[in-house]
Write a structure and sequence with these properties.
With about 325 residues, this protein is an alpha/beta fold. Helix content is about 45%, strand content about 20%. The protein has 2 domains: about 5-110 and about 290-315, Nucleotidyltransferase, domain 5 (2-Layer Sandwich), CATH 3.30.420.40; about 115-285, 2-Layer Sandwich (Nucleotidyltransferase, domain 5), CATH 3.30.420.40. It contains 12 helices and 10 strands.
Length: about 325
């Protein structure tokens, strides 16, 4: 059987989808993060993540990962594709191997391959778009030190700052302090901060604390609500910056979103409101997740245009946690 592969490799997890020639998803699998390969240790994690997701997807499809060969495979990664192609050629067999960015596959999934803009807010953040002429542009995505505004790690960092200010008496009271302490197994915000600086807490693990901010906001915490609204505004700004690079003022543009931060109803609704204040912009839910976008790009590389069928709920896939550094 002719087989096609799409992989979304991010800072939090790696997801693989296998499809048949008609666009039906045969199997899906997930594993740990696969965004960096710079050191030998990073290469091992990358190889384990991609191999693990592929093996899980093959198992779900009733295939043997050691013997399967794909007509086309598209893999998108955060952190860029440049240092990954050679490793991937050793992991999987494909007649056509496309290695690209997570932003491109997220856009393809969100718009079904049509022109538009997607803002991604997972562990980090970036906005990426493509117009009708095929021109692409980006905004953000500069990593946790210099960018990633509105992403999960940045939200968790802002939440911890609020907790520290509360504890030290120079910021407003917030439920985030107690929520963060309980989740991090610490007695004081100072102790939690020092834990976050250890190798025990990777960036994706810290980013998971962003969920506590939404919970506190739902319980009426105004500090938490303000952090979520600020994140939404920053993510909308990224989308607006990409729009100005690709579309004329007032020109119709489809704008979407992807990533765990947008699971927050408050973030999603405020982002939509801000995006649609710009004439011509229409904010719509993503058609497919990024892994499905990668699968669509694999079909496109083989000269096929299909409509995906039987795409599973990828949020329900069990992924392997990141091994300790």
């Amino acid at each position: 059987m002719r087989l096609f592969l799409g992989v979304d490799g991010g800072q939090s997890s790696t997801t693989a989808l296998i499809g048949d020639p008609g666009g039906r998803v045969l199997g899906a699998g997930a594993a740990g993060p696969s965004n960096h390969v710079g050191a030998a240790e990073g290469r091992e994690k990358f190889t384990a993540a991609v191999s693990g997701a592929l093996a899980a997807a093959c198992g779900a499809a009733g295939l043997e990962p050691e013997s399967v060969r794909f007509e086309a495979a598209c893999l998108g990664f955060s952190g860029g594709p440049e240092d990954k192609r050679g490793i991937l050629a050793e992991i999987l067999s494909a007649e056509r191997l496309i290695v690209t960015t997570d932003a491109l596959i997220a856009l393809t999934g969100a718009t079904g391959g049509e022109p538009g803009i997607v803002t991604i807010a997972g562990t980090g953040s970036i906005a990426f778009g493509r117009n009708g002429a095929g021109k692409t542009a980006r905004a953000g995505g500069w990593g946790f030190l210099f960018g990633d505004e509105g992403g999960g790690f940045d939200l968790a960092r802002q939440g911890l700052r609020a907790a520290l200010r509360h504890e030290e008496g120079w910021g407003p009271a917030t439920k985030l302090r107690q929520a963060f302490l309980e989740a991090g197994g610490a007695k004081t915000a100072n102790e939690l901060l020092h834990r976050f600086y250890t190798r025990e807490f990777s960036r994706p693990r810290i980013a998971e604390f962003a969920r506590l901010i939404e919970r506190a906001s739902d319980e009426g915490d105004q500090v938490a609500r303000g952090l979520l609204l600020k994140a939404a505004a920053e993510l909308a700004l990224l989308a607006s910056a990409v729009r100005r690079q690709l579309f004329e003022p007032g020109e119709p543009a489809r704008v979407s979103y992807a990533g765990g931060v947008f699971a927050s109803t408050l973030v999603r609704d405020r982002y939509r409101l801000l995006v649609e204040q710009e004439p011509g912009s229409r904010c719509v839910p993503p058609l497919h997740p990024p892994a499905a976008g990668a699968l669509l790009d694999a079909y496109r590389a083989a000269g096929l245009k299909v409509e995906l069928k039987d795409v599973p709920d990828l949020t329900q896939l069990a992924s392997s946690p990141e091994p300790p550094a």
